[in-house]
Amino acid sequence: MEKPQLEIKVKHFEELTLHEVYDILQLRAEVFVVEQDCVYQDIDGKDEKALHIIGYYNDKIVAYTRCFAPNIYFEEAAIGRVVVNKTHRKFGFGHDILEASVKAIENHYQTRTIKLSAQQYLTKFYESHQFVQIGDGYLEDGIPHIGMIKKEKA
What we know:
The chain is an alpha+beta fold. The protein has a seven-stranded mixed sheet, with helices on both faces. The termini are far apart. Strand 4 (77-84), helix 2 (93-109) and strand 5 (114-119) form a beta-alpha-beta unit. The protein has helices at 18-35, 93-109, 123-127, and strands spanning 7-12, 51-57, 60-68, 77-84, 114-119, 132-140, 143-150.
């Protein structure tokens, strides 16, 4: 069976349609609040500063990340809110959306050094994309996390 293709769109906040904003927030709430049973403030005032990487499958948003230029979230460029709809994870869309996010950061911010705050159970996933763990683990919204970084190749 051929792997389904994820259609990727990269948009600044102002370019998002109302429907896209609604669908993105719904996907984030579905996974981060309901599935992970974690009450936290998702709408944090940072979406306006982010580059939004949106993954569509059959015209529905099923994968998403938000990316930041250096010195907005961390000193380095950053990827956050990495999310894939539960029923679509089997297609490897997490890898697709992360690869698209790395490319978007390279294209928009001219850097390959990227930092993220990973849920600890996903460290192997991020390591498969050349991210390495940095520092000690910590709790974020009651969930174990670890800092990870992907360095610019010399």
